[in-house]
């Protein structure tokens, strides 16, 4: 790990286990955890952050892989985007693999981790809409070996926070054994941050379609009514196909839910027309949602 920051941390601790890392953070309240450093060191280099001490999470082998439990995969927070992009992981959770492959250039994917992506909680975070659509939960480690579980979306929405010295240990993801798709629009060709992203996940056991839209709001949005409506049109015991009209209507439904019209003024006047930027965003969301569902069903 290198930095050009003028003020570097006074101490760097490299624990070998999750509980040791939590203990190190509890012992040094001013210390900050660092995984791949791609977000954190960018803030340090910009002078936005001057951590007095760092607790490096890179040596914790238990967080770099995954294991299975009750029909779920427990993904270590230290899984890199590069690792999640590989074929064996893609066979397990295809949309998460696709989002990891879409996250930045190769240097970033080699270092950046799942836990860092979640903890940073940037609206453009590529894994976040996928985790929202999968209804994933976080296994949070705290002092004294404590573990608690919270939905990823609660952390992203600020409904629940990480307490001091707590770390994201694992991400619990259901194994649905069904098609899932992640699509991303960027403002330029080549790697770039999402201007819009859409994850669509089929859940045949519950006869459900789950969709989440990223980058258009501070956290991923779930268009629940659109999900229920389109799921009711699918012949789950048959070919599972939908007409082009139904796919297009799903796209419009998702876009209207996630990029709403401007509100009327408080004094009761007429609502302003949506700006060209809003109309463009809505078109992009509609297109991605239509394509993602079409691919999932094809
Ligand atoms: C040039 C560039 C391009 C990028 N492009 C993309 C992109 O296209 N898509 C995208 O999604 N992201 C992108 N990123 C952002 C970044 O790479 C990802 O968010 C990455 O997943 C962060 O992981 P990390 O391990 O590097 O986190 P770090 O930088 O190590 O940590 C980030 C934050 O998370 C905290 N943290 C880390 N691990 C844990 C944990 N286990 N528990 C609790 N807190 C933790 C740290 O304290 C810190 O506050 C880009 C970054 C750069 C610099």
TrEMBL record:
<feature type="domain" description="FAD-binding PCMH-type">
    <location>
        <begin position="4"/>
        <end position="178"/>
    </location>
</feature>
<dbReference type="GO" id="GO:0016491">
    <property type="term" value="F:oxidoreductase activity"/>
</dbReference>
<keyword id="KW-0285">Flavoprotein</keyword>
<keyword id="KW-0560">Oxidoreductase</keyword>
<dbReference type="InterPro" id="IPR016169">
    <property type="entry name" value="FAD-bd_PCMH_sub2"/>
</dbReference>
<keyword id="KW-0274">FAD</keyword>
<dbReference type="Pfam" id="PF00941">
    <property type="entry name" value="FAD_binding_5"/>
</dbReference>
<dbReference type="InterPro" id="IPR051312">
    <property type="entry name" value="Diverse_Substr_Oxidored"/>
</dbReference>
<dbReference type="GO" id="GO:0071949">
    <property type="term" value="F:FAD binding"/>
</dbReference>
<dbReference type="InterPro" id="IPR016166">
    <property type="entry name" value="FAD-bd_PCMH"/>
</dbReference>
<dbReference type="InterPro" id="IPR036683">
    <property type="entry name" value="CO_DH_flav_C_dom_sf"/>
</dbReference>
<protein>
    <submittedName>
        <fullName>FAD binding domain-containing protein</fullName>
    </submittedName>
</protein>
<dbReference type="InterPro" id="IPR036318">
    <property type="entry name" value="FAD-bd_PCMH-like_sf"/>
</dbReference>
<dbReference type="InterPro" id="IPR016167">
    <property type="entry name" value="FAD-bd_PCMH_sub1"/>
</dbReference>
<dbReference type="InterPro" id="IPR002346">
    <property type="entry name" value="Mopterin_DH_FAD-bd"/>
</dbReference>
